[in-house]
């Protein structure tokens, strides 16, 4: 009998998340230095993918990018930037992934070339998935342009698109080559998009850092009113906490059934779908955080004063904590798609065993494998009346 051959493979991934202003100004060396950081002396081939919504607020961006590339003889863009729709719609139609793959083939983008994805989290997710499955992995540089993407989605290792009515059904775990955050892009965001990304900071503070939660409480008014120094601190600390979790959790590619940083997301993902993606991901996360905090309060896990602090912070930041789609179970229980279905979909996404992160205090998360549907409905009623 032949004995099994056991093999352990260890792979180290290293990438930097950097912060700057004026990334595409000719005198800013960050992008050039990043593209050449591997020491490859050959001319660097790149394919740019740009969020159309970004261009609406930055009409001169393509000219600025072209001027930058024209000034760098060692950088060769293979074609004009590929413009794609921003928002969740770009993840709902596989044609955009297919188009990028066609360009990788047509223009000879190899594993030493780069895809530069410039835009919000949805565009980065889609372009990252296309990069990860082309040649089994083309180098990806993420250039996030929203609060949500700079502090959360762009700094991690996940990419994906939606399919079969489910969020991120198709995807990959593939670390980026680098993440370049340009704070100047935030100045052109709508108030809604400025606010939306702050919910992820509340999430990670609730799980990991009570002092950060206090900072958010103390600066809620400044953050709501677009104070840039306060926002830069929020983005930096939030990104730092996310990266620390990825590098130290022991399960960066989610091989197990636990996703601690998806606190509040089981309902958020379903709310996005039920609203036909009319609400932003960050807005749905804020509601999801409020729902799970209220559930923890109603099940005697969370003290009332801490529950009050959480909901008041979210409201002080400008979030709405109830939308009609949240109450479908109350209006016609079991008769239509509803939030409760989000639990089953989350269980499936995790691999069969439901694992939900809940709170027993600010900065104190714990995992449970079941939730009481009656208490969920009670929590929804509480938010409706809050």
Number of helices: 18
Low-confidence stretches: none
User: Could you give the order of the helices and strands?
Assistant: EHEHHEEHHEHEHEEEHHHHHHHHHHEEH
Report mean pLDDT, rounded to a whole number.
91
Number of strands: 11
Structure description:
The structure is a single chain. By secondary structure, this protein is of the alpha/beta class. It is 46% helix and 16% strand. It contains 18 helices and eleven strands. The strands form three sheets. Strands 1, 2, 3, 4, 5, 6 and 9 form a seven-stranded parallel beta sheet that branches. A two-stranded antiparallel sheet has the order 7-8. Helix 5 crosses helix 6, helix 9 packs antiparallel against helix 10 and helix 13 crosses helix 14. The chain starts with 15 loop residues before the first strand and ends with a helix. The model has no long low-confidence stretch (mean pLDDT 91).
Please summarize what this structure is.
The chain contains 18 helices and eleven strands. It is an alpha/beta fold and 386 residues long.
Protein topology:
Layout: E1 16-20, H1 30-35, E2 44-51, H2 52-57, H3 61-70, E3 75-77, E4 82-84, H4 89-92, H5 95-106, E5 114-119, H6 121-133, E6 139-144, H7 147-151, E7 158-163, E8 166-173, E9 178-182, H8 191-196, H9 198-208, H10 210-218, H11 220-224, H12 228-248, H13 265-274, H14 281-298, H15 304-316, H16 328-331, H17 339-350, E10 356-361, E11 364-368, H18 373-385
Parallel strand pairs: 1-9, 2-3, 2-4, 2-5, 5-6, 6-9
Antiparallel strand pairs: 7-8, 10-11
Helix pairs in contact: 5-6, 9-10, 9-12, 9-14, 13-14, 13-17, 14-15, 14-18
């Amino acid at each position: 009998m032949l004995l099994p051959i056991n093999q352990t493979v260890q792979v180290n991934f290293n990438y930097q998340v950097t912060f700057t202003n004026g990334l595409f100004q000719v005198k800013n060396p960050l992008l050039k230095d990043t593209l050449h950081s591997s020491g490859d002396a050959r001319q660097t081939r790149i394919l740019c993918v740009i969020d159309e919504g970004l261009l609406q607020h930055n009409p001169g961006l393509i000219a600025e990018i072209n001027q930058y590339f024209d000034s760098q003889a060692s950088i060769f863009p293979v074609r004009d930037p590929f413009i794609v729709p921003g928002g969740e719609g770009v993840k709902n139609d596989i044609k955009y992934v297919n188009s990028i793959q066609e360009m990788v083939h047509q223009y000879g983008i190899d594993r030493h070339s780069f895809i530069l994805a410039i835009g919000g989290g949805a565009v980065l997710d889609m372009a990252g998935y296309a990069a990860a499955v082309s040649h089994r992995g083309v180098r990806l540089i993420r250039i996030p342009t929203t609060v949500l993407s700079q502090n959360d989605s762009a700094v991690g290792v996940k990419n994906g698109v939606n399919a079969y009515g489910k969020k991120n059904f198709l995807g990959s775990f593939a670390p980026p080559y680098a993440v370049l955050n340009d704070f100047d892009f935030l100045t052109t965001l709508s108030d809604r998009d400025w606010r939306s990304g702050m919910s992820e900071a509340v999430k990670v503070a609730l799980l990991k850092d009570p002092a950060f939660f206090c900072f958010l409480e103390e600066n809620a008014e400044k953050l709501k009113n677009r104070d840039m120094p306060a926002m830069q601190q929020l983005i930096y600390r939030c990104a730092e906490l996310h990266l620390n979790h990825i590098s130290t959790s022991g399960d960066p590619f989610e091989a197990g059934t636990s996703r601690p940083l998806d606190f509040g997301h089981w309902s958020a993902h379903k709310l996005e779908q039920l609203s036909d993606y009319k609400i932003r991901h960050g807005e749905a996360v804020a509601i999801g955080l409020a729902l799970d905090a209220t559930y923890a309060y109603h099940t005697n896990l969370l003290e009332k004063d801490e529950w009050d602090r959480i909901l008041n912070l979210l409201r002080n930041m400008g979030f709405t904590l109830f939308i009609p789609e949240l109450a479908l179970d109350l209006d016609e229980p079991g008769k239509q798609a509803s939030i409760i279905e989000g639990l089953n979909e989350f269980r499936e996404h995790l691999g069969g065993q439901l694992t939900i992160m809940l709170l027993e205090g600010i900065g104190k998360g714990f995992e449970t494998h079941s939730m009481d549907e009656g208490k969920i409905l009670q929590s929804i009623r509480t938010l409706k009346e809050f």
